[in-house]
Write a structure and sequence with these properties.
The complex is a heterodimer of chains A (105) and B (119).
Chain A lengths: L2 E4 L2 E3 L6 E7 L7 E6 L6 E5 L3 E2 L7 E6 L2 E6 L8 E7 L11 E4 L1
Parallel strand pairs in A: 2-10
Antiparallel strand pairs in A: 1-3, 3-8, 4-5, 4-9, 5-6, 7-8, 9-10
Chain B lengths: L2 E5 L2 E3 L5 E8 L8 E6 L5 E8 L2 E4 L7 E6 L4 E6 L8 E8 L8 E4 L3 E5 L2
Parallel strand pairs in B: 2-11
Antiparallel strand pairs in B: 1-3, 3-8, 4-5, 4-9, 5-6, 7-8, 9-10, 9-11
The chains are: A mainly beta (105), B mainly beta (119).
């Protein structure tokens, strides 16, 4: 399963609404996760099963979608949200990642 | 708390071998799938392999060269890397699946082990 993520980079202002899209080459139901990675650090799980937030994740983050198209939304971008975001499917055993979206202020 | 600690990274010549270890703590090790994910310098994330019980699976580019194994008595997972290529140069992360299933989102990551192929 191929995962296509876009945009590859985005620059927005503090307080802006930011949307990242991930598209699967075939249906993956809701078996999609989003990760945040900061420079020099391991990724951290943000959202799983397409829309469920990990306990540490601020409520300005949300995930939607099912089937082939998914979105990660940051409702009001904050300086701490700078980093690279990846989607990942876990519908089958090759748990492929999207190419990543670098978010800048 | 959950911890995953990788070791065994380093430099090896193309065609050579390395063995990565991942030692886990803070959870019932036998209940969870453990995966390896790698990240080449300046690149994105690539899933490499997983093991859950006696079931293992590999991405196409490493199948036949990499072997994943686990020792439940030591709460450890290993990744044997043979016939190393330049494309294998990456940080290798040991990761734990969130639920007691083979596949799934990765809720805990190790700090990573750097593998470098260089002559």
């Amino acid at each position: 399963i191929q995962m296509t993520q876009f945009p590859s980079t985005l620059s927005a202002s503090v307080g802006d609404r930011v949307v990242i899209t991930c598209r699967a080459s075939q249906s993956i139901d809701v078996w999609l996760a989003w990760y945040q990675q900061k420079p020099g650090k391991a990724p951290k799980l943000l959202i799983y099963d397409a829309s469920k937030l990990e306990t540490w994740v601020p409520s300005r983050f949300s995930g939607t979608g099912s089937g082939r198209q998914f979105t990660l939304t940051i409702s009001s971008l904050q300086p701490d949200d700078v980093g690279t975001y990846y989607c990942q499917q876990y519908h089958d055993f090759s748990e492929t990642f999207g190419q990543g979206t670098k978010v800048q202020i | 708390q959950v911890r995953l600690l990788e070791s065994g990274g380093g430099v090896a010549q193309p065609g050579g071998s390395l063995r990565l270890s991942c030692t886990a703590s803070g959870f019932i090790f036998t209940n969870f799938g453990i995966h390896w994910v790698r990240q080449a310098p300046g690149r994105g994330l690539e899933w490499v392999a997983f093991i859950h019980g006696t079931t293992s699976y590999y991405t196409d580019s490493v199948r036949g060269r990499f072997t994943i194994s686990r020792d439940n008595s030591k709460n450890s997972v290993y990744l044997q890397i043979n016939r190393l290529t330049m494309d294998d140069t990456a940080i290798y992360y040991c990761v734990k699946v969130r639920n007691s299933t083979p596949r799934g989102p990765f809720d805990h990551w190790g700090q990573g082990a750097l593998v470098t192929a260089s002559s």
